[in-house]
């Protein structure tokens, strides 16, 4: 099967050939018998049709090459735009990473004791336990029971250790426990994780005046977290008419959904305390 373009091309070639032969024959006759007007009458419609056909074909080819050129230019521009968008995305990500690293550096400068920087490489997808996996382990100095912190505050505690990896239980897990203080009133309690993603400061005596917005910090009495680390902010207080304790809800300072880097804070051993 011939394509439409091929049929059109053959037709144009046929018209051109026919017109040339016809003109050649009629021109010789005109020279001898002087019947130029008759030949002109006969040939003119064919010449007109041929001229229009040639012009039509030229327009088709001209538009075809123009559209092909535009299409190629559009492809090139799309590639350049995609490359520019990817480059811009890498620059934005680098800037965000630099900002986080600057924040981490400031935290290390004002924190006592050795810190091991680690990156979060996994999170527990289930709702039963809220844990993270980090890319540092026993070969890097991480031990079971070490505190895990960030510049924003307390993150959790190391529960399992391998040579190059470790797992940490998050502050918001219901099995976690951090001995804590209300910074203003110095009221003491224990922060436990809640299923809602917040925490509860338990065992706070009713006699203490606690306000929404008060800052909760680690007390340092549990032997895991250094004293003064930020834990969260009081988001609710309920004093029951009976009982010894009041119900205090705490919103953690750490955003566990966006957390990417942490520090493992090695515990100070008893012999190190004596040496100091």
Compact description:
The chain is of the alpha+beta class. Helix content is 40%, strand content 27%.
How would you sum up this structure, described in words?
This protein is of the alpha+beta class. The protein folds into 3 domains: about 1-105; about 115-175 and about 260-275, Beta Barrel (Thrombin, subunit H); about 180-250, Thrombin, subunit H (Beta Barrel). Helices cover about 40% and strands about 25% of the residues. The protein contains 3 helices and 12 strands. It has helices spanning about 5-35, 35-110, 270-275, and strands spanning about 115-125, 130-135, 145-150, 155-160, 165-170, 180, 190-195, 200-205, 215-220, 230-240, 245-250, 260-265. It has a 6-stranded antiparallel barrel with strand order 1-2-5-4-3-12. It has a 6-stranded antiparallel barrel with strand order 6-7-8-11-10-9. Strand 10 (about 230-240) and strand 11 form a beta hairpin. The longest helix has about 70 residues, at about 35-110. The protein is elongated, with a radius of gyration of 42 Å. It starts with a helix and ends with a helix. Mean pLDDT is about 80; it is low at about 270-275.
């Amino acid at each position: 099967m011939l394509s439409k373009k091929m049929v059109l091309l053959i037709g144009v070639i046929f018209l051109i050939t026919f017109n040339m032969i016809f003109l050649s024959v009629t021109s010789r006759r005109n020279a001898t018998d002087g019947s130029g007007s008759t030949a002109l009458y006969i040939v003119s419609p064919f010449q007109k049709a041929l001229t229009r056909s040639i012009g039509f074909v030229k327009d088709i080819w001209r538009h075809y090459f123009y559209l092909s050129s535009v299409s190629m230019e559009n492809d090139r521009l799309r590639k350049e735009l995609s490359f520019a968008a990817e480059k811009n995305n890498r620059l934005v990500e680098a800037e965000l990473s630099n900002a986080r690293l600057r924040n981490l550096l400031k935290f290390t400068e004002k924190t006592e004791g050795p810190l091991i920087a680690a990156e979060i490489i996994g999170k527990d997808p289930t709702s039963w336990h809220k844990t993270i996996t980090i890319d540092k382990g026993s070969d890097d100095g991480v031990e079971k029971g070490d505190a895990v912190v960030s510049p924003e505050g307390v993150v959790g505690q190391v529960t399992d250790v391998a040579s190059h990896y470790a797992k940490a239980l998050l502050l918001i897990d219901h099995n976690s426990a951090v001995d804590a203080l209300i910074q203003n009133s110095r009221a003491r309690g224990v922060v436990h994780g809640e299923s809602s993603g917040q925490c509860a400061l338990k065992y706070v005596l009713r006699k203490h005046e606690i306000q929404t917005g008060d800052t909760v910090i680690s007390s340092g009495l549990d032997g895991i977290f250094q004293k003064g680390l930020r834990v969260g902010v009081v988001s609710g207080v309920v004093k029951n008419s009976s009982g010894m304790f009041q119900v205090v809800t705490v919103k953690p300072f750490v955003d566990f959904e966006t957390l990417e880097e942490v520090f493992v804070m090695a515990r100070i051993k008893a012999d190190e305390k004596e040496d100091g």
